[in-house]
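Protocol step 4 of 5: obtain the predicted structure for the target chain.
Materials: sequence only (see below). No template structures provided, no constraints applied. The aim of this step is simply to have a reference model before the mutagenesis design in step 5. Sequence pasted as it appears in the construct record:
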Amino acid sequence: MTRRHFFASAAAAIPAAAQGAVALGSRRELFVDRFLIDRLDGASLRLAAPRREDAAIVLDRPWEGAFSNYVTVIQDRDEYRLYYRGLPLAGKDGSAAETTCYAASKDGKKFTRPDLGQFDYQGSRKNNLILAGMAPFSSNFSPVIDERPGVAPEQRYKALAGTRTSGLVAFQSADGIRWKKMRDEPVFREGMFDSQNLAFWSTAEGKYVMYFRTFKKIDGKGVRWISRTTSEDFVNWTSPVEMTFGGAPPEHLYVNQTHPYPRAPHIYIALAARFMPGRQVLSEDEARSAGVNPGYYKDCADAVLLTSRGGGSYDRTFLEAFLRPGLGVENWVSRNNYPALNTVRTGADEISFYTLSNYGQPGTHLRRYSLGLDRFASLHAGYAGGEALTKPLTFAGSRLLLNYSTSAPGGVRIEIQDAAGRAIPGFSLDESVETIGDQIERAARWKGSPDLARLAGRPVRLRLALKDADVFALQFA
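Step 4 output (structure tokens):
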């Protein structure tokens, strides 16, 4: 059966009335899951490969050090704000030695520490501390800009922090630097909390959502898990729900770092740390030579890409690592490679995320990694070519914009079909003008430049034919 016949028969086998078209409107969709995809033939979804960039900051101040952790990066207008735990020596979560530190950047590539003068450290206030002497809340202080419409200016920044003993306490701030508790009592108690526990206002769901650390018993053993709760006011939270992972094998997920992707906020990106307890790479001699703390070289970790579209489920289309530990024994130690919360835009065509490197050893630092804008994963086909057929969808607009990359001989062609799988005259594959090159945004074209607006609101399917090409995202506009 030819690809043309395969896709036509596959679509026609499902009555249009029963298909339930996806109301796409003009929102951007990323190929990070199979949400839009009905059929694949010779094509697949493929993870992107992040680019390793320079260190964004070395955590070498006396109050920082080898056990600094739980990092958040926030892009606030024209400034990048960095929050992290400072801890020079290993200790129990919630100890008095922990502090919360702040740094800033104008480009998201190099961060500097302002002297804030708020807290004393060893007889001096010349430091970048925003929280100190408030155990246990510096253990995992996790801030966010509250995007809820009408939020009071003094509550523009919010944060959660605490341990299992204290529960999670809510904080607020007008400027992200001077903080106070929203109330003394914890706002939530039903979790383990021995990790970074985060919350944000979801424009897609119209409420606050919190993702936090729990343990789940599987075959009699505790597995580090992620659970979720929601709130209308950041103070009163619903009963927790354990997240599901679409049938993926259970793995220890440490920090989850779930956040709405700014250019498609209905999609939550989660760059989670996948922790492998007891999976030892370094010998005792190698650990000693690298200066690794003796308690932190018998495990390893990498980072994986999870996504969610709200509710109690993550999508784990990709089980392989999004970011491998990499060359060098220093990268294969316990709790290394933990991603920071949030991805941020660091260029016209670039986004960045950050990971904690050299944990538990000299030279602990925050490493930046970059990706093309929206390019977490792609619909991909190799040189032999491949095709994808979307589910029926409706759209608004007059252009179909592609975020794509091809080789020199490669290309992308698109056919627009009716809901039953018949090519719409003017938009067949033969009439598609091949798209080649590498661009974040380019409009698909057909011979004769037919009016795409006349199809708006009608259930249609997209048939994408690729050769040595990737399509990362699409949007009608």
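Step 4 remarks: The domain at 51-372 is CATH 2.120.10.10 (Neuraminidase). The longest helix spans residues 3-12.
Proceed to step 5.
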